[in-house]
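Quarterly update from the structural biology core.
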Amino acid sequence: MAPDAASEPVVIRNYVNVLLRPDRTLSDAFWRGGTAGSHPDDQVLRAIPNLRTLRVDTASPIARDTAVPSRLREVPVRVRAVTAEDILYYDGWYRLEPRADGSGWEITGASLQPVLR
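Predicted structure, tokenized:
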């Protein structure tokens, strides 16, 4: 991994910040291969109408493989989405692996579930 590469939680926070922009090429660039596919794992966030703000709180990454150092990390998240009409909450995780060129981390999967607060 490049010495100046962003940590896994920082990658997730940066990704969530660009979800507020209408240009999906910016957010897709965080996913493996530069595309989130036709139905991204976090489609629930990407499809919120009238989205005004997103806030993500991340926990420490969890190794999901036995490699040393780990090459598959899971970052637990709590997301708060504010729309023109409502405040929505989601809990879940994003999975990341090193980019093929070693420049940093890329998203390979996600799971987000709505929660009541």
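The longest strand covers residues 87-98.
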